[in-house]
Amino acid sequence: MTEASLKTNSYKIRLENLNDFFQVWIKTKYAQNIWRKFWIGSVVLIATMMFFTVPMLSTITADAPDIPGFAPAVTTFMIIFVSLVCCLFTAIFLFVLSPLINYLTQLMIFIISPVSRRENQVEITASKFSKSSGHKHSETEWANIYDVSETCKTILIFANKNCAIIIPKSAFDSSEDADTFSKTSSKHWLLAKDITF
User: Fold this and answer.
1) According to the model, what pLDDT value does residue 68 have?
2) Is 36 exposed, middle or buried (0-12, 13-18, 19+ CB in 10 A)?
3) How many whole angstroms separate alpha carbon 75 and alpha carbon 81?
4) Parts of the chain belonging to CATH 2.30.29.30
5) Where are the transmembrane segments (predicted)?
6) What is the spatial distance between Cα 4 and Cα 2, in angstroms, rounded to a whole number?
7) In what order do the strands lie in the sheet with 128-133?
8) Contact at 8 Å (CB) between 129 and 184?
9) Cross-strand partners of 131
């Protein structure tokens, strides 16, 4: 392998590589601004629920017994209760359902799609990143790459926040070749983004 052009051996993506992609995506890409999404989602859901709850509270408190402070106490309790339930539903959706749906969708695509059975090959130079998959060939300049990440078994070159080229480290003759490829990819990407080391 030379610095000018580095190439993988022909490889197929395995389930463990897809899992590596998903773990990196959850930890870094999906988690970006997750708390902002949580609060915005909660506020929107609370506002929507209050639109329906406040008229209902008017009806409930109008028929309330003449106990002093009963109507404000019930109203306050219901507003707090509805707000907490909305926050809980938003949290369940953002932290559990959305990642689970994304993972199961990716898994289904992986199992059904012929892409997982195709032979792939990747080549990098200082100016571009090239991928061959089956009869398809694509080239991308490093400046158009979103991110480069690595796990213990996989190198991930993100084309955008949610899509990555998955390269198993087993696609190289040795772990040193895989490390060289990973470091060189990161270097080319950082240089293209004008980020200094």
Assistant:
1) 75
2) exposed
3) 10
4) 5-13+118-192
5) 38-57, 77-101
6) 5
7) 5-7, 120-125, 128-133, 136-141
8) no
9) 122, 138
To which H or E segment does residue 45 belong? Answer: helix 34-62
**Among positive and negative, which fits the CA dihedral 35, 38, 41, 47?**
negative
Domain 5-13+118-192, second-level architecture = Roll (2.30)
Q: What is the CA radius of gyration of the chain?
A: 25
Looking at residue 55, its pLDDT comes to: 82
d(CA 148, CA 164): 9
pLDDT in tens, 9-42: 999 999 999 999 999 999 888 888 899 999 999 9
Neighbours of 81 (CB within 10 A): 11
Backbone angles phi, psi at 166, to 5 degrees: -100, 120
The whole-angstrom distance between residue 151's C-alpha and the CA centroid of its chain comes to 15
Task: Write the pLDDT tens digit of every residue in 80-131.
Answer: 999 999 999 999 999 999 999 999 998 998 889 887 788 999 999 998 999 9
Here the tokens at position 122 are: 């990747």
Q: Looking at residue 118, what DSSP letter applies?
A: S
Q: Is the pTM of this model over 0.90?
A: no
